[in-house]
Structure formats: C-alpha cells, structure tokens
Amino acid sequence: MATGVWLAGGRGSVAVTSIVGAAAIRAGLADPTGCVTELEQLRSPALPALGDLVFGGHDPATTRLCKKAEALAAAGVVPARLVEAVRDELAAVEPEIRPVPVAATQLESAALIAEDIAAFRFRHSLERVVVVNVSSTEAAPAPHPAHADADALRQALGEPGAVLPPSSLYAYAAFVSGCSYIDFTPSTGARLPALDALAHRHAVPYAGHDGKTGETLVKSVLAPMFAMRNLRVRTWSGTNLLGGGDGANLADPGANAAKATSKQRVLGETLGYEPQGNTRIEYVDDIGDFKTAWDLITFSGFLGTSMRMEFTWHGCDSALAAPLVLDLARLTAAAHRSGRSGPLTELAFFFKDPLGGAPGPAGGVPHALAEQWAMLASFVRGLADA
Ligand SMILES: NC(=O)c1ccc[n+]([C@@H]2O[C@H](COP(=O)([O-])OP(=O)(O)OC[C@H]3O[C@@H](n4cnc5c(N)ncnc54)[C@H](O)[C@@H]3O)[C@@H](O)[C@H]2O)c1
C-alpha cells in the first residue's frame, strides 16, 4: 500500500522532522512514541504502514533536507545520531521536494502543482497521495465571490490575480488530482464552500485545521473538567513564547491573529460561554522550536469562592507535530481507500479548530479530547470493517 505524502512546506521543521522520524522508525532505530495510530486501540490493518509512506512536496526554500535535519539536531529537536543514520533516505527524498510552481494565472499554477504530484505518484507507483499543508501560516484572505462555487472558482482562477491563498491552491490542486488533503495549519486550506464542493465532486476526503500539539491540547482536557464539575471559569489567559520559522512567521499580525483565534475557540465551545482573557503569541528567537505556554485560569466554586490554576507547558513543537502528521496521513489515506469523501470530522482529535463546527443542536464536533478520542477510535474500527 505505497502511499505518497506530499508536504506543502516540505523543507520546514515539521516536515523534515516527519521525514526523519518515518525513516528512523522504518529502519528500526526509533520507536513510534507520539504516533497515536501505533497505540493498541488504534492499530488497524486498514492503515498504510509507517514504512509504506513515501515523501515529496513543494517549498520555496532551498535549504537541503540534510542541512535542515542537522539544524534540527543541533537545536535538540531530533537526535543527531538518527539524522546521521537516515542520511541516504534524506538524499533520496531531496529531489522530491520541488520549488513552488508559479505561472501567469493561479489555474496554471494549480495545474503545475498537480503535474508534480502526478509525476511523483507515477515514479513511486503510489496507490494514492495525501497532500499535507505544513507550510507557513497565512493571514486570512480577502473574501471573493468565487469562494462560494466550484465552477465560478475555476473561472476566476483562470484570470490574472490571486483568488486563493497558497494553502487553498494546494487543496484545489489536490482535489482535481484525486488526492486527499490535510491542513495542519490555521490557514484557509479547504475551508471554502467551493473547495468542499470540489472534494465531493472528485470523491476525496479532507481533514483540518491546525494541529493540536501544545497549549490547546491541554485546554481541551482541562476545560471539560471545569465544565463537568460545574465550576465557573471567569478568566483564561495564555502567553505562548516560541521561536523557529513558525514563531518568526507568527510575528506577522495577520498570521498571529489566525493562530490566536484558532487557539481560543476550544474554550467557548467546551464551556458554553466565553471566559475573559486572550491567547497571546510572542516570537522569542532564542528558544527556537521549543515553546513555552503560561496559562492563568481564575474560576469560582461553591458559593462563589474564588480559586485559580496556573500551568506551564514546555514543548518541542516539531517533535509533537511530526508524529501527528504521520498519523493523519495514514488515517486520511485509509479513509480515501474506504470510499470516504468530504470533511473527515472524526479526526477532530488532532486539531485545534476541527472541521464540522461547534457542538450544538445542529450537530458539530466535540472539542473535549476524551470525546474526540472515542470518535477517532470508532472511526478506525469503521475503517477496518469497510
Ligand atoms: N509545530 C507545531 O506544533 C504546529 C502545530 C500546529 C500547526 N503548525 C503549523 O505547521 C506549519 C509549519 O510549522 P513549522 O514549524 O514547520 O514552520 P517552518 O517555518 O519551519 O516551515 C514552513 C515551511 O513552509 C514553507 N513555505 C512558505 N510558503 C510556502 C508555499 N507557498 N508553499 C510551500 N511551502 C511554503 C517555508 O519555506 C518553510 O520551509 C505552520 O503553519 C504552523 O503554524 C505547527
């Protein structure tokens, strides 16, 4: 079941950590700690094996993969001995991470992206390809009437100018090539009615948005606790300090706003009201890929007694994200194989801002981690029965 994983942002920290990790696990040099699809309850013959994943992608950066992997090792993100051990695998993937095609219109650019993916699929005799967006976070795009309709979108893409942000152009190219798509970032990705219609038209599934790896992961466990104990959260404020490429990019106010909104959503949707407070993200060059989140929660208990809780999270962002990228690629490929198309809401477990909307009378997906876990386990069982 050779399965392609096409990484938009293939030379970034998350992408390269994923490539190094998959190669190290395949060679038996590392165990799959952090990959939830390797847990007893989620293991399934319906999923492609980690060793079946073949990597390619697009990135405007030109840093060689082995150089990027060495930099990640120097920063303590991956062990240097593993980078050394998988040097040949990195050299084999090197030509598969291609420059981002740019043409006169976005329709032509999408066709070139699709051509690169098709050639990759042919070269490696891949059963299918999953396109994963792990590129730099974008600011929200200006609304465009063509975002609402697949045919109008195709027409508008054929005219000069940018109708779609890059993350959505990758989704467009993926869908018209019959590939599934995962948005690991808070960018727009497939989150437009025209792209949803296109995914259904081409019978391909998609998943997103924004990998849940740190502060929001903790929030999605703690917020349900306050709700279940009927404790009233009055304020919840968090400060995130991070460096690395993602941190530098989030210094841009537009990208920062997209990320902060995505991080705060879990509270309102789990508690049923919005406590006071904000999530702030600050770039601190010196801490590289290691993130510190400080959260202060104030809450009222019985008879209004005031209490508070604080937590500090020190996480290595790419080491938390990479195993989830591998999990998502395996799960999305298996869902595609089983005939699923459109949004994979059952994969909410992985995301800060999951597809499917807020829970409520009209449906929606839960934001509480335990409920998301149960939904994921049932999804994996369903894949095996399909
Ligand atoms: N690490 C985590 O825990 C985590 C969690 C959730 C989401 N994310 C998201 O994942 C993404 C990647 O994070 P990272 O730490 O690897 O960032 P990074 O800056 O190291 O890598 C991003 C890569 O995207 C490339 N890129 C920029 N524009 C592109 C385009 N148009 N097409 C293709 N590639 C392009 C950049 O050149 C860079 O190599 C970010 O959007 C981040 O917000 C990360």
UniProtKB/TrEMBL annotation:
Q: Which residues form the Myo-inositol-1-phosphate synthase GAPDH-like domain?
A: 214-318
Q: Which SUPFAM superfamilies does the record associate with it?
A: Glyceraldehyde-3-phosphate dehydrogenase-like, C-terminal domain, NAD(P)-binding Rossmann-fold domains
Superkingdom of the source? Bacteria
Task: Give me any GO biological process, just one.
Answer: phospholipid biosynthetic process
Give the matching Pfam families: Inos-1-P_synth, NAD_binding_5
Q: Which GO terms describe its molecular function?
A: inositol-3-phosphate synthase activity
Q: Which family does it belong to?
A: Belongs to the myo-inositol 1-phosphate synthase family.
Instruction: Please report the name of this protein according to its UniProt entry.
Output: Myo-inositol-1-phosphate synthase
- Native organism is Phytohabitans suffuscus
Taxonomy of origin reads: Bacteria, Bacillati, Actinomycetota, Actinomycetes, Micromonosporales
